[in-house]
Amino acid sequence: MPDTLLSAPERPAEILARHAARPTPRYTSYPTAPHFQGDFPETTYRAWLAATDPARPISLYLHVPYCARMCWYCGCNMKLAARYEPVAAYVETLLREVDLVADALPDRLPVGHLHWGGGTPTALAPADLARVMRRLGERFAIADGAELAIESDPRTLTDEMIETIGRLGFTRASFGVQEFDPAVQAAINRVQPPEMVARAVAGLRAAGVAGINFDLIYGLPHQTTRMLEQTIAISAELGADRIALFGYAHVPWMAPNQRMIPTDALPGPAERAEQAAAAAAALERAGFVAIGIDHYARPGDPLAAAARSGRLRRNFQGYTTDDAETLIGLGATAIGRTVSGYVQNISETGAWSRAVAAGHLPVARGRAFAGDDRLRGHVIERLMCDGRVDCVEAGRRFGAPDDWADESLAALRPLAAEGAVAIHGSHVALSPWARPLARVAAAAFDRYLPDGRGRHAASV
Predict the structure, then answer these.
(1) Could you tell me the pTM of the whole model?
(2) pLDDT digits (tens, 9 = 90+) for 71-81
């Protein structure tokens, strides 16, 4: 069999459509979250934290599960906050968790990236956001020039919160725009006209927040390609610096709120593939550079620079410039990574709060790296970030024999026969038109996927 099989008997759109419905992980970690182990020992996590290199910058992720309104498409761990009292109690527990984690570390560690996610982090009162940031500054050394990012909902973002975000030195804010078409917004229960988003963007820019991210989604109920192209045009006009374009993951068995979305209103695999391709073309026409499989950035953005230089990374926040080995997750359900493995906090806020109140690190699940996990994780990350990888070079970096990837390369032959990937000896490269199939290609290197644990969303 030749090393390179490039002939494509069908048009690229047909190949993409055929693979679009295949369920694969998003590969923001490896091993992926379904393979984390329950009842993970707190003592193990404490040992991992104690072994952290105090000279190397770390990253922090803080999770706020509260939202003022329910979005029917959402698959995140979230809770409706009809009153502020539960949110205020959550803040107190979060402050205590910050202290517990900092006490378990060997020193006051430097922080290069800090990200607030949710839920809606701006569901916190401005004063409470400031309190947590102040505690973080006391217990960690926030580096000059660190990226401080926060997710927000333009429907509930107040002028006071905008001023607070600017005063605290946040450098980036992101909005879940999803789609601007009114019919689609009504179908997903997230009504936010362009004027509302424009006001939020203008306010944050005036407050000194330099970077603005929009999240967009294709595959939504009643959505058409034309609607999505119009949303991209509006997003470019509003001045977004980065756009994340995600395929809607319909997982009602995990997110009961998604049962409000009728399955027959969703675009099929061929329509999803068409939307993804049309959106990519529209974003590039608007001046954005493609980053990995689902991110786009202005050419001068640091994310675009990282992609050009091969320094792009991928973690639980998606594509990033963050190259820290250690990412500490704080808050209910937050996931972190150390040089030894992954940990995830208790997801139920009551149980998480009780664990912290008792002085415990509230870890629920975890996974220690074993065998060739780091090697396979590296190869998967490079495919997801660069669209190419040299398996022999990667293997030697981790002390593996040159033939370690033979089985995975064989599994890629069907994609190579369709022209989606090119295989030259140990080199694997996705064809430019097949960039949306990076998850499918990466799955060939996932030794845990065949066990069937976990249910995953469509690849495209």
Answers:
(1) 0.92
(2) 989 887 778 88
